[in-house]
Each structure stands twice: as C-alpha cells, then as structure tokens.
Design a protein that fits this description.
Elements (H helix, E strand, L loop, with lengths): L6 E2 L3 E5 L5 H7 L3 H6 L8 H19 L3 E6 L5 E8 L7 E7 L8 H15 L5 E6 L4 H9 L3 E6 L8 E7 L5
Parallel strand pairs: 5-6
Antiparallel strand pairs: 1-2, 2-3, 3-4, 4-5, 6-8, 7-8
Helix pairs in contact: 1-3
C-alpha cells in the first residue's frame, strides 16, 4: 500500500482510509444522517464497502496524495467518523467534508479533525481554495463550516444532480 500521511490532533488520528476500514464504512454510509444529508451510496455489505474504497477513495489518494481519512479516537482506538479533502466535479477548489457516527456528535471531534485537514490542505498539499457543499437542511454542517472559516457563497447544483446545495468557500492567502 502507498504510504500516505496520517495526521494527528490532541484526541484524534486521521488515517488514510483503506480496505481495513470497510466494515466501519459500511456502518457509517448507512447511518440515517449519512443517508439524509449525503446520500445513499448503495453500500450494503463489507464487500461493497471494499469496492467503494477501491473505486471512490483510493484513486484520488493515488492521484493527489490526499483524500478520505478515517477518524480514530486516540484514547481507545475507536473509529468514529470520516473527514477528507475531495476533488469533486463541479466545484472550484477542493471540497472539505466530514461525517461522524451520531454517538460522537457534539463533542468537537468534527471541528478538530476538519481543522487539522484544513491546515494540511494549506501547508502540506498547497491547496489554495477550499470549498464545501451541504444540504439546506443540514444546519449542523453549515455551523461547522462557518466555524472553520468558510463563507457562504450561494447555491450550486453539481453535475448529474438536480438538488440545489449551499456552497461555502475559503481562499488561503498567497504566502511570500
């Protein structure tokens, strides 16, 4: 396997998602919150989750050196969520996204993980602009994006989709 960078925060490890995360992804991708706010990925078995890793996650990791990270709580090694930087068709900039199991919500984990990836995007990967999209009803995501410093820019419709989404963006200043 390629040696992609793992990131660390005070409470969390952000490890590049791999085949070993398939059982966790199966659980996460089928939570009511994922299905409501992100969408059904039709992943109904560990084998389908492994295929999701091979077709949706690994190609971008190999192409860009970053992508989806499985978020692990350092205190007990439990996988609690996902956070990533995505090259998404129809968006200007790299999309920062996150999803956590419901029982780990409201504890600052998403902000901690996304803040670390936001910093890595700028300082390690040289990303100049972050973007984020969220559904109009996903108030928790909107609040977190604003806390991360992204600003609401308007509505957007992605290719091959007819739902209007809220678009947030953050440009990093050019370093001299």
């Amino acid at each position: 396997m390629d040696n992609f960078q793992t990131f660390e925060t005070e409470r969390l490890l952000l490890k590049p998602t791999s085949y070993e995360d398939a059982p966790f992804l199966l659980e996460l991708l089928n939570t009511p919150e994922w299905l409501q706010f992100i969408g059904d990925r039709n992943v109904r078995s560990v084998k389908a989750a492994e295929k999701y890793v091979s077709t949706r996650i690994l190609p971008q990791q190999k192409r860009l050196g970053y992508g989806n990270y499985t978020v692990i709580r350092k205190a007990d090694g439990v996988k609690i969520g996902s956070c990533g930087l995505y090259d998404r068709e129809g968006l200007e900039g790299i999309d920062i996204g996150f999803a956590f199991l419901k029982e780990y919500g409201g504890q600052g984990y998403a902000f901690e993980a996304a803040s670390r990836l936001k910093e890595a995007a700028r300082s390690i990967f040289g990303i100049r602009q972050l973007a984020a999209i969220t559904m109009k009803e996903n108030f928790a995501s909107q609040k977190l994006l604003e806390k991360l410093g992204l600003k609401y820019k308007g509505l957007i419709t992605l290719p091959n989709d007819d739902e209007e989404l809220l678009l947030y963006q953050l440009s990093f200043p050019i370093q001299s």
